[in-house]
Amino acid sequence: MRLKRSSIASFSFLTVASSGAALVVGMGPAQADIGADLSFLCNGRTGAWPVKVNVAGSVTAPRRGAGVISFGQMTVRVRASAKDLSDMRGTPAGKGSDTGSAEVPLTTAARFLVSAQAGGTSVDAAWPTFNLSGTGGELTGNGAVPALAGGTGQVTLRATGLVLNLSGGTAGGQTTVSCSPTNNRPLATVEMPATASTPGTSPGSSPRSRATTPATTAAGADTSCEVLPAPGEDPKYGFNSYPALDRVFKEPGRPPGDFTVGPIGRGITYCIRASGFSNVGKLAGATPVGALTLLRRAVRAGILTQPDGEPVNYREQWGYALNKPAPSRSVQLSLGFMPTLSVTDMDQVVPPGKDSSGNLYPVTGNVRTDIAPDPTLPSVADDMTFISSLVGVRVHDVALNGTPLSVGENCRAKPTPLNLSSFTGNDQSGRTVLTLGSTFTGRVDIPAFTGCGTSEDLSPLFTASVSGPGNYVQLESAPWCRVVTDPSVCASSEEPTTVSVAPGGQVSLTSKALQMMDSTGTEGVTCDAVTIHMPLRAGHWKQRFLFGKTGTVEYKGCQLTAAGTTIPVRVTDSGSGKLGMSAVDTNEDGTVNMVISGLVPKVSTTLGGKPCTIQYVSSAGGSALGVQGVYDNASHTLTQTSVWQYLPQFGSSTDCQAAANTTPGSTGSFTINPFVFTPPQKITMP
């Protein structure tokens, strides 16, 4: 089911899809039950009918404000008389009418339109579709709700609409009904302390993982947080139309469809610390890189639609950024294979020339984020963020074999584009929360040097030793710190979080039991053992998202119970070769919150004398299942802490679905016993 969107919103909150929210685990101390009785007026084929909806669950505010608001499982109950449900579907009396048939099973996909409101701003909270079922006048279901990242003060969630896709009953077929709220009761209100400094701190993270970063480095570089001016406030800052930087809004290309960009807004401001390295290809060495990025995100937003106007599950957010790098001091073997100590500055610079209006270009680079906003629909592209800026490289304070070498103050390479990108997930891998920090990679060409030397021209030596194309750059970004008016709230923002793995190698994760059971707990699939084989590379400071991937899965001793009959079945996994292992954060006891993503169990058997294949996913969009849990380095086990809901897919085989005794759209629980790692692994987040 696709929903029409009439406007393009510049997000002032960051929503985390349920498949991506797998990387937000653990619950903070400020947890509370929430619930609301809502009233809607639904418009069907032959009139309008009142519908009552109850929403119940829990919400967890972050330990520190401007962070992530996470939600527990939400239960939704839609109440209306059996006659009204039948009338909504427009079924004529006497022709398969459900009128008065209080026990006729009905199902529906219920899509809530929920807004998050704070400080006079309202944005789409991107709640998923709930699969409901029931008899008579009540349809019930539950599911995971996206987290919200960003915002300070009081955040209020309100239901602004409801879409029901009714099916089942004696009439068969499907009908879509749109409903409008008749009361203004909030779903939840969460207080976000305004003194907090880190917007992306994951609930449950340990205070031990925080570190204070000085505003000024020892070399004197200013890396303090500032509020990046909004569009039109200062000509030095804004979207950069310099051709090499403007290209990021066109390349890489987007999926087919009609793309429309909304108006320029103010966007959302962040300060982001990052650290990593830049290779120098000619020297076969690396230079450490540290920086603070001032970001104004979602200044513009883009939407992709099909020719008929239906939206595609794809959005873009456009913004701009300024990097404030710290000088990098490193030792390389160069200039005749002698140890050379130097300090390198890689500063963001103003592009040469003027724009089409005759004005100087701004110093800021361009930022584009591609996301799939609706986890219930298949995504058409990876979630990615692209940053394009112009940088200049300057070398100074050079010492050759311990002896100072006078290169002057203007030993530099001419400005060159620096293009970085970060993969943050897809339907198969699951999705990480961008504001919790991610890995940016790219390559930079280092042009020829000029102005090196005081008494003689040393530029050719630096050009021969350093300049060249395709130098690899990798940066780990820390959780993003939201800035509204006071940059000092980000003075002690977190450093990037990475993972260390030892001894690594080919690792087997074995669980002694798997259950995929329906809501009654009596029908579904069980397996005696599940083993995941995955290569893990040993090392320190590895990226936390997908630090392990490309694993395969084995299922043993599996059987299917349906309609009171149990039969052995063969289970394979469509996700084999595409699995992932990610770390989220550490707990105070040293355990690590982790996620194994990409599981898509597939059952093959014969039901009712016909071949039958059932595939288990986490949403109607086909998103993969996963195991969200805690890894204990003492026992070398990963214990599931959050039960995922599965949705069976039968393709076009209605006979197979009937033989499996499964109602269309029904969900169940995907539970698994602890995984034991062999050989034992030490997985830490230094």
Task: Give a written overview of the molecule.
The protein has 686 residues and is mainly beta. It is built from 4 helices and 47 strands. The strands form 4 sheets. The protein has a 16-stranded antiparallel β-sheet that branches. Strands 1, 2, 3, 4, 5, 6, 7, 8, 9, 10, 11, 12 and 13 form a 13-stranded antiparallel β-sheet that branches. Strands 15-16-17-20-21-23-25-27 form an 8-stranded antiparallel β-barrel. A hairpin with a 2-residue loop joins strand 21 (383-400) and strand 22 (403-405). The longest helix is centred in the N-terminal third of the chain and has 7 residues, at 82-88. The chain is globular, with a radius of gyration of 28 Å. It starts with 13 loop residues before the first strand and ends with a strand. 48% of the residues are buried.
Structure summarized in a few sentences:
With 686 residues, this protein is mainly beta. 3% of the residues lie in helices and 52% in strands.
Overview features:
686 residues, disordered N terminus, 16-stranded antiparallel beta sheet
Shape: globular
Beginning-to-end CA distance, first to last residue: 44 Å
Task: Name the poorly predicted regions.
Answer: 1-30, 92-104, 194-221
What is the subunit organization of this protein? single chain
β-strand percent reads over 45%
**Percent helix range:** under 10%
Furnish the topology, listing elements before pairings:
Layout: E1 14-16, E2 30-43, E3 48-61, E4 68-71, E5 74-79, H1 82-88, E6 106-118, E7 121-124, E8 129-134, E9 138-143, E10 147-149, E11 153-168, E12 174-181, E13 188-192, H2 243-246, E14 258-261, E15 268-280, E16 285-305, E17 311-326, E18 328-334, E19 338-348, E20 365-371, E21 383-400, E22 403-405, E23 412-426, E24 430-431, E25 439-446, E26 449-450, H3 459-465, E27 468-477, E28 481-483, E29 499-502, E30 505-511, E31 514-518, E32 524-536, E33 539-542, E34 548-549, E35 552-562, E36 565-568, E37 570-573, E38 580-586, E39 592-599, E40 601-607, E41 610-617, E42 625-632, E43 637-642, E44 644-649, H4 654-659, E45 668-672, E46 675-678, E47 682-684
Antiparallel strand pairs: 1-10, 2-3, 2-12, 3-4, 3-5, 4-10, 5-9, 6-7, 6-8, 6-11, 11-12, 11-13, 14-16, 15-16, 15-27, 15-28, 16-17, 17-20, 18-19, 19-21, 20-21, 21-22, 21-23, 23-24, 23-25, 23-26, 25-27, 29-33, 29-47, 30-32, 30-46, 31-32, 31-45, 32-35, 34-38, 35-36, 37-40, 38-39, 39-42, 40-41, ...
